[in-house]
Write a structure and sequence with these properties.
With 183 residues, the protein is α+β, with helices and mostly antiparallel strands. The chain is built from five helices and four strands; from the N terminus they run αααααββββ. The chain is elongated, with a radius of gyration of 42 Å.
């Protein structure tokens, strides 16, 4: 029998040594996949895609009409202010209060015509004896400003009643009448 544990590198037997450690980055391998796991992942990704397609379809079918309704309906919160502005303007016209009517005009109309010019110009509305507001309309356009106007039936002392329209805009926190058909 050969002698045990006799020195390094020598003859026959001895203690086995481990190879020296390597110096380099440790390599980690991804966990092994089984065929069943790959099939399950494909099913989940296919199901997720179908859910996304159904979601987009629901948004298109239900969201578009809902948005259209929202953009075109009357806004109940704005209507009282719009009606009050038209009422104040038309009341000033009936009272022949030209200063009061001028104060209700929007900035663009006041820039176009000074107060002095407004007061000097003969008003066609001196025959106005009354009015009745028949409609307040708010129309939201998808690609433009929201349009707000009031339709009123105006009565005159010297002619038949006439339907007029008053555009109304919010300026500096107050509702103003723009380019009125009656003065």
């Amino acid at each position: 029998l050969p002698p045990l544990g006799r020195g390094v590198g020598g003859g026959g037997g001895g203690v086995a040594r481990a190879p020296p450690p390597t110096t380099g980055p440790a390599v980690t391998l991804p966990p092994a996949r089984t065929v069943g796991a790959v099939t399950a992942e494909k099913e989940l990704s296919g199901r997720g895609f179908a859910i996304i397609i159904v979601g987009v379809g629901v948004l298109l079918c239900c969201g578009t009409p809902t948005a259209g309704f929202y953009l075109s309906h009357k806004d109940a919160r704005e209507e009282p202010g719009i009606r009050a502005a038209a009422d104040a303007y038309l009341s000033a016209v009936v009272r022949h209060d030209d200063n009061g009517a001028y104060d209700m005009l929007c900035a663009a109309d006041r820039r176009r015509e000074s107060r002095a010019d407004w007061l000097d110009r003969p008003a066609a509305g001196y025959g106005v004896t009354g009015f009745r507001i028949t409609d307040v309309t708010v129309r939201r356009l998808s690609e433009g400003p929201t349009l707000r106007w009031v339709t009123a039936e105006v009565t005159y002392s010297d002619q038949a009643p006439r339907t007029v329209g008053l555009n109304v805009e919010r300026q500096d926190g107050a509702w103003k009448v723009c380019s009125p058909d009656v003065r």
